[in-house]
Amino acid sequence: MWCSKSFQKSRVVNGRYSVIEGCWKRGNGVRVTLVNVYCSGSLREKKEVWSEINVVRLNQLSKAWCIIGDFNSIRRKEERKSLMSTLDYSKEIKGFNEFIESAELVDIPLVGRKFT
Q1: How many Å apart are CA 92 and CA 97, to the nearest integer?
Q2: Do residues 37 and 68 make contact, with C-beta atoms less than 8 angstroms apart?
Q3: Which of 11, 32, 71, 114 could form a disulfide with 64 if both were Cys (CB 3.0 to 4.6 A apart)?
Q4: Are 65 and 59 contacting, i.e. CB atoms less than 8 angstroms apart?
Q5: What is the end-to-end Cα distance of the chain in Å, rounded?
Q6: pTM for the full model?
Q7: Per-residue pLDDT for the chain (116 aa), expressed as one digit of tens each?
Q8: Rg of the chain in Å (alpha carbons)
């Protein structure tokens, strides 16, 4: 998956999301945690995943984090482009934005397409 000369994996946890901890061998040996997420459509399950990721994050020694994947959530109503866009997503939007803030994440904007 990666070059073992560049990254030394120390732990892998698989579940509703995957957590890979390790150390970049180049660049001062920075410890990193990589998280790959896929959330279902259920708001209850999304909230559970957000909470679990926050707990994992708080219990790690890694200074660098990268969380990628599909949260199946939106930060603003305008991000939902479907026949279901008339539904009220305010609870999900509020919860997802609170998760991003509490986890101290940065939502990197997409380049090119507006929706994936």
Answers
A1: 8
A2: yes
A3: 32
A4: no
A5: 24
A6: 0.78
A7: 667 788 888 888 888 889 888 888 876 788 888 899 998 878 899 999 999 998 888 877 667 888 988 898 888 887 776 655 556 778 899 999 999 999 888 888 777 766 55
A8: 16
